[in-house]
Fold:
Amino acid sequence: QVQLVESGGGLVQPGGSLRLSCAASGFIFSRYTLSWVRQAPGKGLEWVSSIKGSADIINYADSVKGRCTISRDNAKNTLYLEMHSLKPEDTAVYFCAKDPHSDFSYDHWGQGTQVTVSS
Structure:
């Protein structure tokens, strides 16, 4: 049974930093592309970043490029998202998602972790 469990969200001031984690189980972690996707209040889903199984291909949305770093530890079955210089518009629920075909068609999602950027 595939499980994705996010953690690390919270309340942070503008300009601050957070590190999100996503602990995975139930599948061969290193074989799959994983993504971070967020949903701001009252808005639709927004793709943030993706990383292939071997971490050789990484992509970021323009909205976070230069401020976020995605990484993975295949030995620990864990996905990360480090976020810096956070802005109020980064406020959202952040989900990790498994992308079996590396084409943004996700088959499993975590429950999400709330990130709130506010002074």
User: Anything to note?
Assistant: DSSP finds no helices and eleven strands in the chain. The longest strand covers residues 18-25. The chain has a mean pLDDT of 96.
